Amino acid sequence: MKFDLLLLAGISAKSTSAFSFRAVPAGSVNLSSSVERDVYTMADWAASYGVQQAEGVQLNSYDGKDYFPATQSDIPAGTPVMYVPSDLVFSSSKAEQEFGGNLSACENQLVQAGLQDKIPLFRVFFKVLAEYEKGQDSPFFPWLNSLPRSFNTGASMTYACFDCLPPYAAYLALSERQNFVNFQKSVRNAPFSEDVLKNVTVLKWAYNVALTRSIEYNGERMIAPMADMFNHGTETEVEISYDGNGDCYAIASVDIPAGSPLRISYGDPTDPTPLFAKYGFLDESSPGTFCKLMHMRKEMEALGYTYANLLFYRETGEISPEVYDVVLYHCLLKNDEGVANGFYQAVMSGDENTKGEYHGQYWQYTKEELQKHVDGTLRDLERWSTKANSYDLNTHPRVPLILQHNGFVTETFLGVKSSLDMM
């Protein structure tokens, strides 16, 4: 279908008045991992209610499990790739309007748990559960029935999984699991059936749907069926936005040649571990990974850095400058707080010359500390991966992803080790 921006307003109005689905017998979405996703019925459903795609855009899959939009035609930059009318969009604000007081008690418990920043996500989670409970009576049943049944997110991992991951990855994955547990506790205050509230499989599925299919936009969480099919890319072809009416637009951000996948950004592409923990996949196109200096977190925060600043680069074996700063600060604090304070002042004031003098004078300490860390992490990675390989895949289906992640980190650290040894 070819876009005409001048017609979009009329299309939106038409879809609003047409948004009524035929009643069908009630029945739940089958969440068994053996059930195939009914993606193409969903695509027909979406098209019948106003979703438009640029000419040549269609859903593709390499394995029958992961589906993504790609284009068979050239698409110039600035061209609308997909349009989803607001009637089909889940949003945290619309959920608040729809469920009102039923959300209050749940959200109060989230606030008490210190998770007030998760309230927009919780509202979308609540909406997904509400539509799931309706079964085939839900107007969104075709979309729900097209979604993955199983996920590899941190929320879906077990403690056995965490035991096979580097500390940073385990920390992020466990944080997602803890968020889910808090959602599970909070939703007990909702007027859902016991069949939903006591079914951990359903609750975890709804959490993963809300987490992995929604995007943050102007402080809200939004899911636009069909537009939620875009995969992540380090290099992206598409950007998603919403207008004042809540209509969703996916626009080509670059000239896109025929045969290309259409991808958006799920987050910082420089380190794959946060995406691994949140979304359950490994982006092997990422240039590097966090250097795993979890034991120097206080030094990192004192210097004003974040995990995203402290990178080892896979292809080159290079180390980000911030890593050198944190490691040297750590070494100086252990030996001479006065010298450490001088270095701290140089970093915080942006005095690159003085900072460079410190690095030159104490380079050997920094190098030895880094070599000790890299060698120790490589030994740990071998141990973690050996443990993962001992698991039964039937009971630990996320082992291949864990091994893939650990292999990425190992390759990166081996490159850094080679670079350090030559310095």
Describe the structure.
With 423 residues, the chain is of the alpha+beta class. 49% of the residues lie in helices and 11% in strands. It is built from 17 helices and 13 strands. The chain has helices at residues 5-18, 39-48, 92-99, 101-112, 119-134, 141-144, 159-162, 167-186, 194-197, 200-213, 273-279, 297-302, 321-335, 337-349, 352-361, 363-389, 399-422; strands spanning 52-53, 57-61, 67-71, 80-84, 90-91, 215-217, 220-223, 231-232, 238-242, 248-252, 263-264, 288-290, 311-313. A 4-stranded antiparallel sheet has the order 1-4-10-9, with no helix packed on it. A 3-stranded antiparallel sheet has the order 5-7-6. Helix 4 packs across helix 5, helix 13 (321-335) packs across helix 16 (363-389) and helix 16 (363-389) runs antiparallel to helix 17. The radius of gyration is 24 Å and the shape is globular. Residues 1-26 have low confidence and may be disordered.
Unreliable stretches, pLDDT < 50, 5 or more residues?
A: 1-26
Mean pLDDT: 92
State the order of secondary-structure elements, H for helix, E for strand.
Answer: HHEEEEEHHHHHHHHEEEEEEHEHEHHHHH
- Enumerate how many helices there are, as a single number: 17
**So what's the overall shape?**
globular
Helix content: 40-55%
Estimate what percentage of residues fall within beta strands: 5-15%
Q: In whole angstroms, how far apart are the ends?
A: 58 Å
The helix/strand class is alpha+beta
Radius of gyration: 24 Å
Major beta sheet, strand line-up:
1-4-10-9
Summarize this, please?
The protein has 423 residues and is α+β, with helices and mostly antiparallel strands. 49% of the residues lie in helices and 11% in strands. The radius of gyration is 24 Å and the shape is globular.
